[in-house]
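User: Can you write out an input/output pair for a complex, sequences first and structure second?

Assistant: Here is one pair. Inputs:
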Amino acid sequence: MQRYIAGRLLLLPPTLIGVSLIIFVIMRLLPGDVVEIVLGTAQGVTEQQKVELRHNLGLDRPLPVQYAQWVGGLARLDTGRSLFTKAPISAELKDRLPVTAELALGAVLLSTLIALPVGIISAVFQDRAPDYFLRIFSILGLALPIFWIQSLVRNLILPKYFGWVPPPGYAEPWHDLGTNLQQMWMPVLLLGYVQSAIISRLTRSTMLDVLREDYIRTARAKGLRERGVILRHATRNAMLPVVTLATIQLGTLLGGAVITESVFGLPGVGRYVLDAIRNRDYPVVEAVIVMIAMTYALLNLVVDLLYGWIDPRIRLTV
Amino acid sequence: MWNDEGRQSTTMPRRTSRRRFLVGGAGVTGSAAFLFACGGGSKNNAGNAGAAGNTGSAKPAASAAGGQAKATAAAETPKPGGILTQVFFTDPSPNLDMHQTTTYTAVWPLSPCFNQLVQFDTTKPDDAQQDIVADLAEKWEQPDDTSTVFTLRKDAKWHDGADFTSEDVKATLEWLKKPFKPDRPSPRSGTQVTVDEVQVPDPYTVKVKFSRPTASYIMNLATAYFAMGQSKDLHDNGEIGANGKLIGTGPFKLKNYQRANITEVEKNPAYHIAGRPYLDGIKSFILPDYTTRLTNLIAGQYHIFFASEFVKTDQERVKQEAGGKYDTFSIPGFNHETVFMNATRMPYKDMRVRQAISLAMDRDAAINVVKQGQARRGAYMAPQGVWAIGEAELRAYDGYDKPDVQKAKQLLQAAGVTTPLDASATSRTDFQTFAEFVKDQLAKIGINLKLTLADTATAQPVLIRGDFDIGPWTIGINVDDPDATFSEIAISKAARNWSHVYDDQIDQLYDKQSATFDFQERKKIVQDLERRALSQYQVAVLYFQASNHALAKSVRNYVIHQSLYSNRRMDQVWLKT
């Protein structure tokens, strides 16, 4: 097991280098640059100023040099500074990650809590009323665009029919838990619902496969209660793909749920990287992408380890 | 006990397992958290902007600018206390230093922390030259045409307790001309181009010497962009607000800034005007989504609201749905929507083609359709301002009265243009409505636009490089000033002369008016300048758009100005509860 973990960790650096190279190139290929954004075309801005600023930001150096300097900084755990705001990127991420983490973890947890029972019940009552109802519930979550659902609930249904909107801004939970919960429950619920749609469909599908297996028939034949057959035998065997999917969703959300953060005004990683892309703020985009890649790699490792725990038949070898 | 086959079981009832207990406990906790979270929501938010009784709220009086006046009625005594709230779609950008920024989203939240040397009278919305009054400079004089002497007030202090002196003014003006750190931009360095030297003969006197007479200098200093920074701060840190520490002389101090979330300022108890400010603080929220901002406004979460998307129909919605908590205003502004025509390319080099394009534009339709009637015909200078030529005269220029498609086609023919003519156009995604309108209008005369919409970082460089035929764009000017206006798009060295139409007479008239102090004489020259620029069909200006605002009826002593960059200090504002 330790060799397996060590082997997976050794794969991390080349993965990150590959990702960093790709994102470095893509950002440089995008038209427009941060100097134009910062200086704009206000009265008195000269070409000389732009040249000077470009030089001082290091943007006139050859691309391989820029890349090497950046990667060298990352190796020293120095993510550098934003070209646009000059603020240290690590300080910004430190402020924004907790917001995104709260949203992501809450949404994934809630989506799993919703999706598992929905998928299981749907499978158990296949082609009967509960199955139809729950399938509609899941398909709506898949079909309706997330920005539409969020804007509809946040800006129409709750204010108009319940006379309620969340308090403005974002309050950190350790400073003001009550306000934080008022601000976060809706985005977590709506995002969780949309995420649960995918998981519930997968759960239903894998449960249906598992329920047809011989060992399930054997378990029933032995006289085990149906509840025990479903929960203790079938569900556990259907969990592997669900765990994978939930982990992928968590990784995706930790990269920032841009639409949710924009609609609800949450100062998370998603908005940070979106603004950076708009401003051609290369170091920010690159740092966040590398962070996301690292998160995915680590989460994949966790999932592989979870596999062994869920299903002891799986042996992990390098 | 019944089993799953519906038979009664004789076994003992199962005890609650640990798993069952944990599951049940999680369910109870989750329900409690949900109920807790739903409690005390914003049915009637604390600090609700519209909480004040709104009886007897005076109808806004029309000013000469068509705006509003909301001065305190004689019987009302300003009451201290309260937190004013407002919202923006983005952060102060790129940072907390207004000197480096080009957007009102920085000016509005940060201005309360600063003073300028001079300011526009807060009660007069027109931001005219004659409305400039004292701020940190008690008085100013011009001993000759090429110098101005400011006498500073002696009781102003920085937020860190240090005295405000002439060295601070010198440092600020020198920084504006050329920032002390090379990687700090100064978008308004052009306003200091004629400043030769800043002398400080004593701690409360500043003498600015110019290379030539500069009539607009004082006008520029009155806008909020020209906040005074501390000399020590500027020299040590290279900018204002480094590391989140904002040092100003203003009525408020920075309390909290969380990027993408909120800018919060609190009362400065040591402000140099006794009894001010009245407010305890100001909260400026940051929320990108317009619909969410509008919903929050209707729920009463903000006292002051402005957004470029805040159109007439949304203003009506606020009036109907916000329970009478707000007044809404449409204030004539200084932003205009304009079509650039790239004269470095054929056939736009031919003035007849540019003239034809101007003739094709139905300006009345543009005002009614694109701006829902909340705009006004104009050219270079703001039509509601003191410099512009009259509308009757403006209408004499092709296109500025009614469109004439027939004449436009004849002009194209005379210029040797064969239609249909394909043309490339670039604009910003947020200018889409206007750009699509231009496309529609040009189609009538046989010019087919291939319109590309992109974000600022992509679209703006295209126009700067001259990689386009037609460029629909919004131009914003800080203040009703000829220097600011013509140096933006008209003169040869203009930062945004994207049409690349150069004219010696325009340049000469610009230099002449810039050095003329007498208002009437200068106005004559400025109007000649505007006529000359119009006659060259450098650009086709469609309209000057209004800026739309909502103001809670509880706000007192706040007049919305025509410029987005003035009257933002808020020290005179108070809340009636």
